[in-house]
Amino acid sequence: MNTSTTHRVLLVEDDVRLANLIVDYLKAHNMHVEVERRGDTVITKLLNYKPDIILLDIMLPGMDGMTLCERLADYFSGPVLLMSAMGSNEDQIRGFELGADDYVVKPVDPGLLVARINNLLRRHSKPVVEEGHGLSFGKLNIDPQTQMIRLADSSVDLTAHEFELLWLLASQAGQVLSRQYIYQCLLNIDFDGRDRKIDVRISRLRKKLGDNIETPFRIKTVWGQGYLFAPEAWNH
C-alpha cells in the first residue's frame, strides 16, 4: 500500500470527460483532487481547499487560464501547471511570463502528467534556505525566516520562487552564477539552452526591486556567463 503523503490537487478543467480521466489517474497515485470548471471561481475555491498544486487549463469559461495564472500569484504560492491544446513556443513563453511553473500540451500521457506533478511538488517542497541570519545590502534587507524583503523602508512582495532565486543570487553576491548552476540549484535539471523559466523570474525580480529593465545594474546579465547580484548597487 502507498503510504506517501497525499497531495492536494486543484484541477481547473471544463472538459468533463478529460477531468474525470485525470481525477481517476491522480487518485490512483495517492493524490486528492478537487475539480473546478470555471476560471472566475478558482480563487474562492483555492482559498477554501488550499491545494498543494494547481493544474490549470487555458481555455475556460468565466476567465481564461492565462489571465487567471497572472492573478494567482496574489493568492497562491504553490506550483501552477498549465495545460493546453495550444503548444506553440509563444503560448508557452507567455505562460511562464505570467507565473506558470510548467506547461504541458494536451492530450498528455497520464504517466507523464504524474511525473511532472511530482517533480513540481518535490522542487517546491525543498527548503529555500537553512536557518540563519538575513542579508543586507545598502537599503535592501532579506529575511530568510519570514521571506520578508524590504527596500528603502518599503516591503516587496515576492512569490516563493522569486524569493528562492533572489536568495540564491544574494547569498553569492559579487559572483557570476551560470544558468546551468541556477537551474541545478533551483530546478534540479540541466539548462537546455531554450528554457526561459529563470530568465522570466529574473525579469520579474528586476521589476519588483526597482532595477533598470533596459540596463540592469542590480541584478546584472553577464553575457555568455550568467547573472550577477551587485552588492554595491543597493545604496540608492
Automatic annotation (TrEMBL):
SMART domains: REC (SM00448), Trans_reg_C (SM00862). The keyword Transcription regulation applies. Pfam families: Response_reg, Trans_reg_C. It is found in: Cytoplasm. Residues 132-231 bind DNA. GO terms for cellular component: cytosol; protein-DNA complex. Residues 132-231 form the OmpR/PhoB-type domain. InterPro entries: CheY-like_superfamily (IPR011006), OmpR/PhoB-type_DNA-bd (IPR001867), Sig_transdc_resp-reg_C-effctor (IPR016032), Sig_transdc_resp-reg_receiver (IPR001789), WalR-like (IPR039420), WH-like_DNA-bd_sf (IPR036388). PROSITE patterns: OMPR_PHOB (PS51755), RESPONSE_REGULATORY (PS50110). It comes from the Bacteria. Residues 8-121 form the Response regulatory domain. The modification 4-aspartylphosphate is found at D57. GO terms for biological process: regulation of DNA-templated transcription. The keyword DNA-binding applies. GO terms for molecular function: phosphorelay response regulator activity; transcription cis-regulatory region binding. This is Chemotaxis protein CheY.
